[in-house]
Amino acid sequence: MRNAPTNTAVAAALDALIEAGDKLSPAAVAAAAQAATGKSERNPQRFVTMLERLLNVDGSPWTRADAPSGAGSVRTASVPSH
Question: Domains of the chain: which residue ranges?
């Protein structure tokens, strides 16, 4: 993926989502990534869309934006136990 977020940014975003009970605004998700990397995430919706593309490769809904525009919140799916 071109211009994909760094591993640190992805991990920080997922940690923030988990700590918040799996639901945060796109701006809050991007802010968590920015805080961890020091790199400005100027377009939170774009960052969330990239997360979805990175994590939902096999069609499993690991992350999803609640609204088509991405406004509202981002949720993570529970990791299945084996």
Answer: 7-76
